[in-house]
Design brief:
The complex is a heterodimer. By secondary structure, chain A is of the alpha+beta class. Chain A is built from 18 helices and 8 strands. By secondary structure, chain B is mostly helical. Chain B has one domain. Classes of the chains: A alpha+beta, B mainly alpha.
Chain lengths: ~525, ~110
Amino acid sequence: MIHLKKDETKAMVAVHGWSGILLGLLLYAVVLTGTAAVFAHEIGAWSAGHVTTTSAFEKPIDATIRRLSAMTPARYREAVNLFEIGDHGLGVFFHRHELDANGTPTESGIYYQLDNSGRINRTLRGTAEEVFGPRNDDALSSFLVDTHVRLHVPNPWGLLLTGILGLAMLVAAISGLLIHRHLFKDIFTLRRRASPVLIDRDKHSVAGTWSLPFAFILAFTGSFFSFFGTIGVPVVAMAAFSGDVEALSEAVFGNPGTPDPRPVAIGNLDRITSDAIRRTGEAPTFIAIEKFGRADAEITSFHNPKASDIEPVALLYNGATATFERAKPTVGTRTSAGGTLAGIMGPLHFGNFAGLLSKAIWFGLGFAMCYVTFTGMRLWVVRRKDEARSLAWLERTLTVVGFGLPFGLVASAAAFLVTMPLGLAVYWTTAAFLIASGAAIFTGFFARSNDGLTQMLTGATGAVMIALPLLRIFAASGPGWTDAIAVGQPIIAALDIAFAAAGIWLVRGCWTAARSSTRSTSNIPVAAEA
Amino acid sequence: MIMRDKTDPLPLRPRRLWARILLAGPMAIIVALTLLAGMPLWLPGGAAGIDNLVFPLVFAPLIWAALFFHACLDRSITRVALVAAVLFLVHGGLVASSFMGKAAATEKTR
């Protein structure tokens, strides 16, 4: 227990309140979309009706890559990235490393998008920033991730903004810990007969205290990811490598060896993928081929962490002979404290180290963080509302954002399901979010009371959530439950049930609140007559 | 000066508050960035020779948070300024000397 003096506690209460109130609304948006993005992969499969369960790397890819290599100009055959897209299709990015107009290292080349039978669906040319964007079949999950990562603000400003929000969350979490004088008592204190403000404070305190370690981890790892490329790497490269970011990247991620530029055909990739699957027990998540077509070619196969481990796995192969060389850490050439620390930052932030179980825990704790952020801001406003009447607009804004944002997100999901078969999902997923947000703001201006606004927004969110499974089956022609379960995709049925149940719960709550408010209004004249 | 402090302490309060805000805000950012640049020059590289590069990158948010809370909680604002100044000067000096060394080596090669 940390016991601060009275004035220090007062300072920490001020820091806790202001860190939340200044950036709380944006933080709420980042945490809420991040909570949903924990299941981005599953939401992608649910929304686009993915029914293939065999990884692209469990099927032969060698002939495909050789065919694509023959089609690709030699200048882009310096390196190749392989990864899964869509319904276990394959993304192949032939590229070369170069500097952009600002002198920043980038990758430029040709990006082939293949379906799960090896046919080319689309070919894109340009830099990595230009070719990697949302596709028609993953527009919804991309929208969620992009909102969470950079709030749709162009880079580097978007990343800097979310990094600052991460720091604000870190400050709120640490100051929240410091202001508890009786931490263990507060964890279990939920007074039911106190004033509404005290009851709300207890709920905020209990949810905040239980999720405190999680908030700390999320804020720490989140701000690390936001600042890593935007500030951290350029500053460290400036000090240690005279500003040469490529040299820093090579030192941290590269595989040192004697250069051998003799042209040698790439080894059998199918041999590498089957060996990697045999060694790790699961298909790669990403394969990187460096120095493609040279005698010193290197192929690295990246995998999710093994059971009971938290650090991802990487296997290094000789590219020319397709023989296994060694298991290597994802960061650095040998196992080291720094490499392990950097390697576990991803799994700690994404919660993907123990499959659906860890994802479900991360989702639940993320939801608790949303609740803590929102109730914290409400408490701050309610406590001061009587002193400053002008804060009523802030309370209204909180309701618009707090309940309007989930409404916007489910509206974007509905729009995706309707427009995906038409090939217009990339545009309409974002457009529907903006339209729904505009509607929430408009309602916020004209709603008679804050409670009425809350009921309207939660009711509308619930109604759209109930409609989502129907839209998925009838508008998007997605697979039914029996078909999805039969092909090993029970997550589709599970998400349908989750949306429908949450929608019914919201509509029912809204209905009950509306009825009780009608009753209390109709009782007023009776009470007045009495 | 002492007389003014005793008889009229209020005018100093906003000044102290602003000094604290300055130290917890812009100064904490500047010192954290200087530490980020300077730490790779003295931290050990570890088994893979990358620890000196990775630790500052990973711990940058925590370094900033430590400087921020120190500026908020330390009762002596002079001590806060002193710690920030020492960290800034030591790491800034390391970075400057590294640059000067590299410039001299380049000049020699020419």
